[in-house]
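Exercise 7. Predict the joint structure of the components listed below.
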Amino acid sequence: MKVFIYPTNSLILSDLVERFGHEPLALMQEIGKKVRAQGLDSPPLNITPEDPKIGLKYAAVEVPSGVRGRMSLFGPLIQSAEAAIIIRDPVIPFGCMGCARTNELVNFLIRAKKIPLLELDYPSTEDEAKEFVYKISEFLKSLTEKKNEQH
Amino acid sequence: MDTITKMIVINSTKVLPSDIVIKLYESNADVMIKETCFGAMVSGERSVVNSLLNDIRKIDPYGIFIKERGLAPGEPYRCRATRRGGARPGFHNLETEDRMLPHIASALRALDRGEVPGHKQRIKKLDVEKLKEIIESEVSQ
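Solution:
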């Protein structure tokens, strides 16, 4: 199943989802598409005329343009998501390298989509990491069972 | 052709990036390989890269972590050589998560042993009202 991960460029989540046999929906895939697209002078910073249209589906024109630009990348991932794993309040996507409003919007859209969702905190100790990995493995196993039942 | 780049992040006591790179060259696959400080990057056709990295992961399943990367190795938009140094975008996230990898590796080992972790009581953050009370009691003294 396609599993949306947040933070969207997380190594740990991307690796664990792939390790347990699912497809991680990560930001890197969308960036890669932009980089490989012909005709962009400096990808992934350039936007095409299509990008604002995609961004406008999620955020109005009054909203900072960075939100719409980011949503043009995250939007297609959220739309194709069949499940999601979210880390609560990660420090890294907040601040100069990220965008707090996009993060809020992404979290809202994922919750509003009513798909199977797992919310966790980043582990800081070994015991927390054991619980973190165990919960992810159980969640992904339940997705596999659900998929098998459907077929 | 669907080309992708994947990065291999090594957090192992028995495998070095150079060992991985030698294995990648030995495979004779049609891919571009770059050794880095954190591991290696492999760029090539999606199916070739995926099957190659599945084999590479088996060298140390608990010490090798893999994720996709948007830009190919040496891409001028991101390469530090053409951007006068400095951390590339994405470095800070990698650095943060790299610190957790030993814990994640140990958790994966525990999972394979069949360990079920007990639910831990989390230490809650300080409540705002409680903080106000502390401030008021300190100020009134």
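Discussion. The two ends of chain A are 13 Å apart (CA to CA).
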